[in-house]
């Protein structure tokens, strides 16, 4: 009888370890050298965007993008699409070109299949928006990540509020 309990406990622990190894792990990497200069940077949106969530996957914050990088979004950004039924996304709001946002945190998400970097950004003055804190993953150029560098905001989506000079190594 004891061996059955022992085997059950061992299977439980093995299952727990397997489940944890498959889980997504999120860590904030603001202080790492490649990312330390990013929090606090401000940008202006160059195009209208949607705030949305994917129906198939959960996200901590609403995401920001347009159809240019998320094909599931409607072609034109229009407030009439808020709450409308779309196959892959749920549209929460529309953010207009010219809106200012600030990077507040850099987040690394690791799973067995991939590792990605994203920025949590704060829209405008925070009180003017129903969803002030959003995830900027879909408006970032992730190609520098292949070289261990930080992603950057795509210039088609936003321009810096101030010009930033790279810090000396």
Distinctive features:
12% helix, single chain, mainly beta, 169 residues, 6-stranded antiparallel sheet, 3-stranded antiparallel sheet
Tell me what you see in this structure.
The chain is mainly beta and 169 residues long. It has one domain. It is built from one helix and eleven strands. The chain has one helix spanning 2-22, and strands spanning 25-28, 42-45, 49-54, 63-65, 89-95, 100-110, 115-123, 133-135, 140-141, 152-153, 158-160. The strands form three sheets. Strands 1, 2, 6, 7, 8 and 11 form a six-stranded antiparallel beta sheet that branches. The protein has a three-stranded antiparallel beta sheet with strand order 4-3-5, with no helix packed on it. A two-stranded antiparallel ribbon has the order 9-10. Strand 3 (49-54) and strand 4 (63-65) form a beta hairpin. The longest helix has 21 residues, at 2-22. It is globular. 21% of the residues are buried. The model has no long low-confidence stretch (mean pLDDT 84).
How is this structure best summarized?
The protein has one helix at 2-22, and strands at residues 25-28, 42-45, 49-54, 63-65, 89-95, 100-110, 115-123, 133-135, 140-141, 152-153, 158-160.
One letter per element, helices H and strands E, the order comes to HEEEEEEEEEEE
Q: Helicity level, as a percent range?
A: 10-25%
Tell me the count of domains: 1
Major beta sheet, specifics?
A: 6 strands, antiparallel
Assembly state: single chain
Give the mean pLDDT. 84
Rg on CA atoms, Å:
20 Å
The tally of helices reads 1
Broad structural category: mainly beta
Report strand %.
Answer: 25-35%
Q: What is the approximate shape? A: globular
Strand tally: 11
Low-confidence stretches: none
């Amino acid at each position: 009888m004891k061996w059955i309990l022992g085997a059950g406990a061992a299977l439980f622990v093995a299952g727990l370890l397997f489940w944890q190894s498959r889980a997504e792990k999120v860590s904030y990497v603001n202080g790492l050298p490649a990312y330390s200069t990013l929090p606090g940077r401000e940008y202006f949106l160059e195009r209208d965007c949607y705030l949305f969530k994917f129906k198939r996957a959960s996200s901590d914050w609403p995401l920001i993008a347009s159809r240019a990088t998320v094909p599931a979004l409607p072609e034109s950004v229009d407030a009439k699409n808020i709450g409308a039924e779309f196959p892959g996304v749920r549209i929460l709001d529309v953010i207009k070109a010219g809106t200012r946002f600030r990077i507040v945190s850099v987040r690394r998400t690791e799973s067995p299949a991939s590792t990605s970097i994203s920025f949590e950004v704060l829209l405008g003055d925070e009180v003017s928006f129903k969803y002030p804190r959003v995830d900027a993953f879909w408006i970032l150029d992730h190609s520098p990540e292949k070289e261990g560098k930080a992603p950057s905001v795509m210039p088609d989506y936003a321009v810096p509020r101030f010009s930033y000079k790279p810090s000396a190594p």
